[in-house]
Amino acid sequence: MPFYQATQSARYLIWRYKMSRPQFEVADVIKQFANEFYTTCKPNGYQRKVLRALVLCRTPALGGHKDKCDCCGRERFSYNSCRNRHCPKCQSSRQAFWVEDLLEATLAVKHYHIVFTIAHELNAICLLDSKWFYAKLFSCVWDTLRQFGYTHFGVETGAVCVLHTWGQNLSLHPHIHCIVPAAGETLAGNMKHIGGSGKFLYPVGQLSLVFRGKMMECIKSRLKKQSLPGQYQGIVDTAWKKPWVVFCEPSLAKPEHVVKYLGQYTHRVAITNHRILSIHGDSVTFMHKDYGDNARQKPVNLTGTEFLRRFCMHILPRRFVKIRRYGIYSSRERALKNKQGLKTKLTVKPKETVQERIKRLTGFDVYQCPFCKQGTMHTVEVLPRIRSPDYSLAFFLQNQG
């Protein structure tokens, strides 16, 4: 399958944003309620930095350029994006690039989509140190998959794992999406197909029990080290008693399909701008899927401060890696294979600009004139960034409108 077809979701996101600009954005919520949120909830410095980046995204503060069409002569001002991974406006091209890069390293075998979730009672422990909690979540997920690979098939398997932290209503809901190949490497160094003709790779019930045991052991050890077991003993006991949901979908036959499918999850943010319905008074209304009612679309109304509090819960710790590869898909394993001469075919990437790559992958030409649709836009002036020390978020908020 060509990369162009494999990135339909990214192409649709770009087309949707260009053709139907949302009336309300997360940046609008930040502008209106940031001061009250700062006073009430006391976010840390990194969270404030992220909110500032979202507000300044595609504004004169970040600079830009003036373009002119060589056909109709009309001019257009384009401002630079913030490129923050939490920004709803900066993810489409990244998603398309990620899908293409992963396709180059994906085995031509069946893949399985597995989702690991935790008991919601553990959210309170997660908020104590989210960086540690998410790292252990990744570790326990891979330890579980690796253990099952050896015990069921005698191979070192692999996985591509993506962390999500949110539910549809912006609540804290940490879970990890994984794609696992139906292949692995034996102790003798040979590749072996696994899974057979079954719809599922491993028994879901057993996965859940082993994953729960590993994660809870890490949590209890952490609480004991910090002298907090008594304070959170009730939460630990409740989480032990509840079944943890591990969801597994039937295999997807072609790697193009599974990479495209996982690509829908990789660069999502807690909420997209198109889901925000209105900002009125001190409240924000947005749409969510109620999975308890057959995934029906329903509006949710929150105060602006509560909206930003929930949004900030999903700002990942600084430099935390939310997409990780393990086993035969890890970068270390691929580098070792190359060093041993096991990889004979080298992929030569074409030399192209970011704009050319976007056009090749998504079909969207950033240089095409948006007015006459015939000419090409050429940059006639570069607009510098505003580097005034007074251009802080508070200054920006006070001088809007």
Explain what this protein looks like in three dimensions:
- The chain has 401 residues and is α+β, with helices and mostly antiparallel strands.
- Helices cover 40% and strands 20% of the residues.
- The protein folds into two domains: 27-83 and 350-398, no CATH class; 92-273 and 313-339, no CATH class.
- A five-stranded antiparallel sheet has the order 8-3-5-4-12, with helices on both faces. Strands 2-1-13 form a three-stranded antiparallel sheet, with no helix packed on it.
- The longest helix is centred in the middle third of the chain and has 24 residues, at 130-153.
- The relative contact order is 0.21.
The global form is globular
Q: Uncertain runs with pLDDT below 50, 5 residues or more?
A: 1-19, 341-346
Mean pLDDT over the residues: 85
Q: How many beta-strand elements?
A: 13
Count of discrete domains: 2
Give the biggest beta sheet. 5 strands, antiparallel
Strand content: 15-25%
Note the run of SSEs as H and E.
HHHHEEHEHHEEEEHHEHEEEHEHHEH
Structural class: alpha+beta
* Tally of helical segments: 14
